[in-house]
Design brief:
The chain has helices at residues 14-25, 38-48, 57-61, 78-87, 102-113, 129-139, 177-193, 303-320, 333-352, and strands at residues 6-10, 29-34, 52-54, 68-71, 91-94, 119-121, 146-154, 196-204, 209-211, 218-220, 226-233, 238-244, 252-259, 262-267, 271-276, 284-285, 331-332, 356-357. The protein is of the alpha/beta class. α1 (14-25) crosses α8 and α7 (177-193) crosses α9. The radius of gyration is 20 Å and the shape is globular.
């Protein structure tokens, strides 16, 4: 019988809740889990019958049976862990944003170039069939030349002051909504419409302090809770975008893009509509059946979880069957570098109050 591909996961949040079920549903063996505290990582290992549980990620890298390392940690760890995993001969799936800044992202990309391993950034929405349809429509010229687009990504996940402090509120660890949600927006815009060459933007933090559960005391919030930016593409199209975690809703994305021949509309993340200007009547519904046949019921209808199952399947075919065509939509470390360059330019624009070249 053919050996299952084997993955080790660093991170006990999204990595445990979503990636463990997604990998297992698509033919993977989860052989190791890494977390910061021994009690929690052992509890998760016992819950999912994972044979190895570590608090030091380097012990995972020493396991010869691990094919893929999935890094689902705060961004402050991405560069170190990704480079170490590649140098250990492992394939790598790294959580977004790529790193703390473009210099770190460049070092990660260079390590990937020096390796013969797969190195991807986890922009999993690229694997949703509906989002792939949107990409294909744009690239096939459905809307013609892009004039401008409007893109919003809002969440209420941190809308109240009762949400306790954690690394997400610390800019030094890579926290903030621009990195967390804005990175997905930038990746989608680059994937669909091409490279971004200029940006300007602003960031805001509304809750200046949050309670640290470790001490019970207030701790400063240094990361952004709202971000807005304008972008210019290499072909002279424009984008206006905003993202917030102090809104209402749960990761709701809306995009409308207008071109010389027509427009497309992304509604509620999972619905895609479009119309050409030479057509009359209602908009066309281009929405695709997104849910994978093997989608675990415990993952529900979260589009990111649905997409993770598709990504896990693609990685299985690429690694087990040596068929890299399954990864054609994927965000590479080079994509991650370009995304990070845009993030850095937006942050610089916020400080200088001027347009920045990417």
């Amino acid at each position: 019988m053919e050996r299952k591909p084997r993955v080790g996961i660093i991170g006990v949040g999204w990595g445990a809740r979503v990636q463990i079920p997604a990998f297992r549903a698509t033919g993977w063996e989860v052989v190791a889990i890494v977390g910061r505290t021994q009690d929690k990582v052992q509890r998760i290992a016992a819950q999912y019958a994972i044979p190895h549980a570590f608090t030091d990620y380097r012990m995972l890298l020493d396991l010869p049976q691990v094919d893929l390392v999935s890094i689902v940690t705060p961004p402050v760890w991405h560069k170190e862990m990704s480079i170490a995993a590649l140098q250990a001969g492992k394939h790598v799936l790294c959580e977004k944003p790529t790193a703390l800044n473009a210099q770190e992202a460049r070092e990660m990309w260079q390590a990937a170039l020096a390796s013969d391993r797969i190195a991807l950034i986890d922009h999993e929405l690229r694997f949703l069939p509906t989002w792939q349809k949107g990409h294909d429509l744009i690239r096939e010229g459905y809307i013609g030349e892009l004039y401008h687009l409007t893109y919003t990504f809002r969440s209420g996940s941190r809308r109240t002051p009762e949400r306790p402090w954690n690394w997400w509120f610390d800019a030094a660890q890579g926290g903030g909504v621009l990195a967390a949600l804005g990175s997905h927006m930038i990746d989608t815009m680059r994937w669909w419409f091409g490279e971004i060459t200029e940006v300007t933007g602003t960031l805001a933090t509304f809750f200046k302090e949050r309670r640290d559960p470790a001490t019970g005391k207030a701790r400063p919030v240094t990361a952004d809770e709202y971000a807005a930016f304008l972008a210019r593409f290499a072909h002279d199209g424009y984008a206006e975008a905003s993202t917030s975690v102090v809104a209402v809703g749960n990761n709701e994305q809306h995009m409308v893009a207008f071109g010389s021949e027509g427009f497309i509309l992304v509604d509620e993340e999972t619905r895609l509509w479009g119309q050409r200007y030479d057509e009359s009547g209602p908009m066309h519904n281009f929405t695709q059946p997104d849910r994978h046949p093997a989608h675990p019921s415990e993952l529900g209808d979260n589009p990111f979880a649905i997409a993770t199952v598709h990504l896990a399947e693609a990685l299985a075919h690429a690694i087990r069957d040596h068929d890299l065509s399954w990864l054609a939509p994927a965000a590479t470390f080079e994509d991650g570098l370009h995304n990070q360059e845009v993030l850095d330019a937006i942050r610089k624009a916020h400080v200088t109050r001027q347009w920045q070249t990417v």
